[in-house]
Amino acid sequence: MSFNPQDAYTIADLRAVAKDILPKGLFEFVDRGTEDELALKRNRKGFERICVRPKVLVDVSKRSIQTTMAGQSTSMPLAVAPTGAAGLLSFDGEISIARAAAKLGIPFTLSTASITSMERVAAEAGGRLWFQLYMWPDREVSYQLIDRVKAAGYEALLVTVDTAVSPNREYNRRNGFTLPMQINSKNMFDVARHPTWFLSVFLKYLLRSGIPALENYPDQYRQKLMQRKPGQQVSLPKSDSLNWDDLKELRKRWKGSLMVKGVLHPDDAQRALECGADAIVVSNHGGRNLDIAIAPIDALPAIVERVNGRVDVLLDSGVRRGSDIFKALALGAKGVFAGRAPLWGVTAAGEEGAFRALDILREELDRVMAFSGCPSLSDIDRSLLWFDHSSASE
Ligand SMILES: Cc1cc2nc3c(=O)[nH]c(=O)nc-3n(C[C@H](O)[C@H](O)[C@H](O)COP(=O)(O)O)c2cc1C
Fold it and tell me: Which residue from 135, 88, 55, 84 is spatially nearest to 339, judged by alpha carbons?
């Protein structure tokens, strides 16, 4: 029986449905962090220790959440974060999430590591499309990818700079989870226990075009990944030689809006803007890369101070409530990205589920603004916040 997304009242509700549907290996690939999952927990703690000191007796009857992010207009200060392999959670899942974002009037960011090609998403989803770039060791191959991004009509490029090497996610190895996802002796029973997912997602891909692959990857990389032996660790080519000169070169090649994703240090924020970035995305990759990384919400104030309004500062990692968006805005972010939230939605109920996830965040933000005496986003500022230091050290 299919799930009615209106029965979900929170992002946590959607996550619970997704947990039932997905094989454990795939669920954990999305849900979990890395190593001891300290960054994952810190991302939530960072938000939870911030309280709001609301203002009352303000006429909040006409509220607006319309804004811009990196110079691009959006119906609310939220964009969908790039998430590789999102299409594995639901058949053509990337198209479904992009359509949901378009319906809400917010940008959707497609990952380099998507299951659906950038051309298909552009042709079938519409809306405001941004593209996330992982630079490969062979720069020329990356430049060819950028040419495809331009030709497909994406309006902004987010270059991810926080993944110099592959993260240490032991659970993927234990679960036999690899990308592209294959069924092997380690995950066979796990998949068999989740027939809804197998029949409505994996089998549909198999019947249409074979094992779902990373469609933006050039042929030589895709073949390498497919030849991986069963159980062998995910090894996508990443560039540990990526440096500031690469960012300058990207700036020359990409004339549209350029964002740098994965900045946590104010010095790096400054360098990114000196290289011509239009926005900085303060992110620890949702706690999935460096486990001892600071929570972006904690890193935000120093970066906002250093950037001093010269470019937009955006944030992701740990956003699960509209109130988290409010807190990030109060600390100076221009907008936030949600990664896992729309993934849980699309798993639970396809496009409608993804829409529900984003709409829950919209409703919650709107309500917090009304409660806090903020009819518009420009009324949200740091004076409304109070920091609960007692829970910070728990
Ligand atoms: C399953 C999954 C895949 C991801 N893949 C990418 C990716 O391909 N490129 C990227 O820059 N970030 C990727 N991220 C990180 C997100 O863009 C974002 O930084 C993170 O999910 C934000 O945290 P949240 O999930 O708590 O909202 C991925 C995150 C998840 C959960």
Answer: 84
